[in-house]
Amino acid sequence: MSARPGFDHATLESAADWFARLQESPNDAELHAQWRRWMDQGETQRLAWSYIERISQRFAGIQQQGPAAHRTLATLRTGKQTRRRLLSQFSVLAGAGLFGWLGWRANPIDSLHAWRAQYRTAVGERRSERLSDGTQVWLNSDSALDVRFDDAHRELLLYAGEVLIETGHGDSRPFQVRTRAGLLQPLGTRFSVRELGPRAQLNVYQGAVRTTLQDTGASLILQAGQAVVFDAREAGAITRAESRREAWSRGLLLAEDMPLDEFITELGGYRRGHLGVDPAVAHLRVMGSFPLADTDQALAQLEEALPVQVQRRFDWWVTVVPRR
């Protein structure tokens, strides 16, 4: 899960501390009064508390909320809900922990498409599929993809996460990948596409890919070794393709002089709960190859390589801090 929910490290850690103290002494009236005074300090404190509550609920099970969750999923399948009603019921699912990744999507309609997608992965899961035309597809953690092949076209729809694609040969039907930001048309190639909210990131490793922006229709062609981030209206500067956007398919997180805060954000996408970093060490540079199948091992490698230590407040709340 992302290590950056949008508020400062100190407030998040204070919220985690209050949560731990209240769990240890649930009937302490004075402690509850102190916590309330902390909450009343401002909106930042309330947002941080809401964040930690949502994460803790994912690990608490769904026994009491199970019936409501199942009713919501049933109505989603029939499509008989309004957008407003969907929003409120998605929060039930997210709080219950069932399909937790679903509840974090900003757009409930996108969440619905992702939940119903033909190919999906959970947080920390990676998946490989060979399609009927011979195309090889790898899905990264927390991803959702639909495949629509007919007599005239081959189309993939990426709703969430990231996919690495190696197109099949000998099929004359046009092949394309659709994202919210635009349309990608590979020209016999190997490439990755990553959803970044309203933007998408393309990395080309073999061949070439034509990118057409959703709103303007403008297009550009990227060759092997190139990358670009784009949204529906404009594309950024063309840069060098990132090897790590391909290495995850082999179960590796490659860090090539990567800032520690960026590394933690990347690694956080492969484990449930909160993974944060103290700003005092966020600038440190990370080099090496780290296992995605065992993120605790990756954190242990960090402790060996850098002057940091891993602080575990709960199973689901982990912070990398300066070594003491």
Automatic annotation (TrEMBL):
Residue ranges of every copy of the FecR protein domain listed in the record: 118-210
A Pfam family this chain is assigned to: FecR
Coiled coil: none
FecR N-terminal domain ranges (all copies): 14-54
InterPro entries (UniProt xref): FecR (IPR006860), FecR_N (IPR032623), Ferrdict_sens_TM (IPR012373)
GO MF term list: sigma factor antagonist activity
PANTHER family: PERIPLASMIC SIGNAL SENSOR AND SIGMA FACTOR ACTIVATOR FECR-RELATED, PROTEIN FECR
Record's protein name: DUF4880 domain-containing protein
Organism, as annotated: Pseudomonas nicosulfuronedens
